[in-house]
Amino acid sequence: MLSALSMELFFFKIYTFLVLFSRICFALVMCNVQAVKTIPALIVFGDSIVDTGNNNGLKTIGKANYPPYGKDFIGGQPTGRFSNGKVPPDFIVEELGIKELLPAYLDPTLQPVDLITGVNFASGGAGYDPLTSELVKVISLSGQLEMFKEYIVKLKEIVGEDRKNEILTNSLFILVIGSNDITNTYFNTPLRKSYYDVSSYADLLVNSASSFVQDLYGLGARRIGVFGIPPIGCLPSQRTLRGGEERECVDYLNQAAQLFNSKLAAELSSLGNKFPDSRMVYVDVYNLPLDVIYNPQKYGFKISDKGCCGTGKIEVAELCAFTCSSDSDYVFWDSFHLTEKAYRLLVHQFLVQHLSSFF
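Structure for Gdsl esteraselipase exl1, as requested:
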């Protein structure tokens, strides 16, 4: 049996641990609260991973404003989000306490007050390569930048010059794009493959990313997060088209993504040195998604090699006529995009790993 002195020492150690633990937790919470307070708005550029409805009014096949898209969204209504529910920008603004959803800039119901806390310029199907957007008739990255310039003018009219500058300086800017360039433009058409090998095409994309980020900086942005390309060789559509009878992940696609990511990370590091008053952050979205795909049960999923809609092997957009019975079991919603549940997981991890890097 423990002596009275031993018991006293034991409980004293437990008490000391709990006090220290509570202080650490309080400090972390206060850091997060402070971070939230200093991010007044979220501004997003990119493709269908983050599009919240900008394609709805375009003459393009790249739309998601019809069922079954949005079946788990508020009211069960399709909004142009390429998933069964919310997409990454919605979760980011929600977790940062900015607002519930991030509206599309071209949303006809957008109100002037919405501009103050941020909007979304992303267009499903877009890419770093201008040809990528042109092929599917969506808003190019340069077009998204022009809309952002228009936004700045409107924001100034609402809040004045000083407050406008303050919002731009402290807002979080996110760029999520590049998958379409490799899967669709480079490997699906001869238009680029005839002139570039994979490495030089990756350079073309990185140069586009660099120019865009520097343009954002010139317009007042200081906190800029640029997402890498996920393991596109493991997308259900690519496994079906290029993965053989067993529908394996396609190594050469994943290798192209990794090559681009390494070049992008190096360029952002260089830009960070060039603009020391900025925070230009490379966001890895390759490794965690790959682990989720190979080990779905570890993250609460059952199926990761096909999507929930249609057969799950090739369908996207208008081809998604019917859905599975339980989308929460699936990593992928269609053959290209993730489910709301999977997006929530990735966004949470992004904020845990990278939020402090923007300060």
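DSSP finds twelve helices and six strands in the chain.
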